[in-house]
Write a structure and sequence with these properties.
heterodimer; A: alpha/beta; Rossmann fold; six-stranded mixed beta sheet; about 35% helix; B: mainly alpha
């Protein structure tokens, strides 16, 4: 089994008095696609922010490329982030730049490449996501799926070793979803990029993930291959994997007694 | 309880925290100005955005202010029989006071608000976080060029405002009210000194720093919601106006004192 590229050990994190994580432990191994799943509000995006060093855990260790993230200063953190690509949920494209310049952005900021070489590199990345023909388009005229593909081209522009996807499938039509799914898999396979995919789209990610973690209540409640997760006899895992509306994650937000609230106030 | 009026100590603490935060942010932005200057095309784009696009409103307002100065100045001066000093009165009023102040207020309303909402929206749509994650400091890439662009644009706009204002004053004074052209211009030439022009320049530079700082600070620290961006825009205008007039008093007192 390959070594873990991202290692989250016994992490505790609380914000505003609310505990988000309690003894959270998970790993993403080199060259694999690791899926992190869980119901909305379980802190999946917070986990990504911990891995990227945008926030620090209250206890425990987050290690990326063998580096202790919370121990890095700004310069160290930026050096680390140059080796990581991140795909935001909504793409987070820069609205004052066109598609080409968005993809070229990390190259222009971090390298001094001659213009013809830069142009070739950007066109190659756009070709990889099927949008070479959209290079001169404004970001405002892109569909949701196209914007996410441009963001993906930008994320792979610096040839990262680790790619982090935050809800890559959210709000996409089936065709765009299939395209993104295929891209995650092919980038992982052809470029050897380690991928962490945070999502709640169980069916889609199950087809490509090597390892899955299911978060609930601030910790990992189940881990393993998608098949192992589906076979697990844990109620919350069963509810999540099968999309049941009620169960350990209740349909109703805790509230006073229904009858009493409706009738008892006269 | 939601909507409760903030207590007085709470309001004072908030005001102090904001002042301190602004000062620290200014330090951070200044620290990134030198790297930003190494890519002058980013700064030039912002001078165009903040400056060139404010030209029409600044020129139009300058013309009207100058024309009003012509009318009011003539009315006042003719009571003492010295309407030939209209040129001096209009030029000094514009160069030392009205030019820098009104240009700064117009800049805050026209360019400051658009800066604050642009940066606020970048925050709300994760563009600034995305830059952070790409190991690009948004203060260097986004804030510093806009800040510098504003500082450079305000004195230039002020000079244009002054010029158009003096043109407006002569339009009313000479062409309409019949003030003698020779004395209008010659008195202006001999009475307006380099010190007066310097005073206007220093003021416009300081106002440029203040208005640009408030715009980028409020935008950068806006809540990432529609309401937050709106609030940041409002705050930009309010704090820019207050800061401009406060600085104007301090600078005027300092120049008169020296």
């Amino acid at each position: 089994m390959s070594e873990p590229l991202v290692d989250v050990q016994d992490v505790r994190y609380a914000v505003g008095g609310r505990t988000v994580f309690e003894d959270l432990t998970l790993q993403a191994r080199r060259g694999e696609i690791t899926a992190v799943m869980g119901p909305s509000g379980t802190g999946k995006t917070t986990l990504l922010r911990l891995i990227m060093g945008a926030i620090r855990p209250d206890a425990g260790r987050v290690t990326v490329f063998g580096q202790y993230v919370a121990g890095l200063d700004r310069r160290g953190l930026y050096a680390l982030r140059q080796r990581v690509g991140m795909l935001f949920q909504n793409g987070a494209l820069l609205t004052d730049l066109d598609v080409f310049e968005n993809v070229a952005f990390p190259l222009r900021e971090h390298t001094r490449l001659p213009e013809p070489l830069l142009r070739r590199l950007v066109l190659m990345k756009l070709q990889a996501v099927g949008l070479r023909g959209a290079a001169s388009m404004a970001t405002s005229s892109l569909s949701g799926g196209m914007a996410r593909r441009v963001a993906l081209a930008r994320a792979i522009c610096m040839d990262p070793e680790l790619l982090i996807y935050d809800e890559p499938f959210a709000g996409l039509d089936p065709i765009s979803l299939g395209v993104i799914l295929r891209l995650i898999q092919s980038l992982n396979a052809t470029l050897g990029i380690t991928s962490i995919v945070v999502t709640h789209d169980v069916q889609e990610i199950s087809t490509i993930a090597h390892q899955s973690y299911l978060l609930s209540g601030g910790k990992v409640v189940a881990s393993g291959s998608p098949e192992q997760l589906r076979a697990a006899a844990i109620p919350v895992v069963n509810q999540f994997m099968n999309g049941l509306p009620d169960g350990p994650v209740p349909f109703h937000v805790p509230a006073p007694d229904y009858h009493q609230q409706l009738l008892g106030e006269d | 309880m939601a909507g409760a009026a903030p207590s007085v100590p709470g309001a004072v603490t908030t005001a102090l925290r904001r002042t301190g935060g602004t000062a620290l942010f200014l330090g951070r932005v200044i620290g990134q100005c030198a790297p930003a200057l190494r890519r002058p095309q980013l700064v030039i784009a912002q001078i165009y955005n903040a400056g060139a696009r404010s030209l029409i409103i600044v020129m139009l307002c300058g013309l009207f202010v100058g024309m009003v100065l012509g009318l009011q100045g003539y009315d006042l001066l003719q009571r003492f029989g010295s309407e030939s000093a209209l040129g001096v009165a209009a030029a000094l009023g514009l160069v030392k006071e009205l030019g820098p102040v009104i240009t700064a207020l117009l800049f805050a309303g026209r360019a400051g608000t658009s800066l604050a909402s642009e940066i606020g929206l970048m925050r709300a749509t994760d563009q600034l976080s995305a830059m952070e994650m790409m190991a690009v400091d948004p203060v260097r890439r986004v804030i510093a060029p806009r800040f510098l662009g504003g500082i450079i644009a305000v004195p230039l706009l002020t000079a244009i405002f002054d010029g158009v204002g003096i043109f407006g004053a002569q339009l009313i004074g000479i062409d309409l009210l019949g003030v003698e052209s020779g004395s209008f211009w010659s008195q202006m030439q001999s009475a307006v000194t380099r010190t007066d022009v310097n005073e206007g320049l220093v003021k416009s530079l300081c106002f440029g720093v203040a208005c640009s700082l408030m715009a980028v600070y409020e935008g950068y620290h806006a809540d990432p919601t529609a309401e937050g961006v709106g609030l940041a825009t409002t705050r930009t205008v309010v704090s820019s106006a207050i800061l401009t007039l406060l600085l104007d008093y301090i600078l005027t007192a300092a120049f008169l004192g020296s």
